[in-house]
Amino acid sequence: MSIIDIIMESSVKEYVLSNKTYFIVAAVLFYMLQPLLFAYILKHSSYGMAEANIFWDVFSIIIVTFIGVYYFNKSIKNIQILGILFTIIGIILIDYPSTKYSKKLIF
């Protein structure tokens, strides 16, 4: 799902920069796939709606940020990098209860 977000958001950015209609059409077509993929993930994974949505949002934000930095030459501040690191830690903590190591927790 994050890949669809990336393609869609990058297409929108290309449309804004170039004003070429096919970029916005591509964005709409890719965006239409998201509900189907989200339903598939919910049906075939052990994650609930909240966890699946959190993973999708976080990975999209991280990857789109890197595309912005490396492809569109945008800059990010150190505090934003720290925010990305905290986000990654948050994903690890959200997924931690489903790992084999979680049974060793004291609390």
Topology:
Blueprint: H1 2-18, H2 21-44, H3 49-70, H4 78-95
Q: What is the count of DSSP helices, taking H or I runs of 4+ residues?
A: 4
Helix-strand sequence: HHHH
Percent in strands: under 5%
Number of domains: 1
Q: Are there runs of 5+ residues with pLDDT below 50, and where? A: none
What structural class results from the helix and strand content?
mainly alpha
Give the proportion of residues in helices.
over 70%
Shape: flat
How many beta-strand runs?
Answer: 0
C-alpha end-to-end distance = 34 Å
| Arithmetic mean of pLDDT | 83
- Largest sheet composition: none
Q: Nearest-angstrom radius of gyration?
A: 17 Å
Description:
With 107 residues, the chain is an all-alpha fold. The protein is built from four helices and no strands. Helix 1 (2-18) packs antiparallel against helix 2 (21-44) and helix 3 packs antiparallel against helix 4. The model has no long low-confidence stretch (mean pLDDT 83).
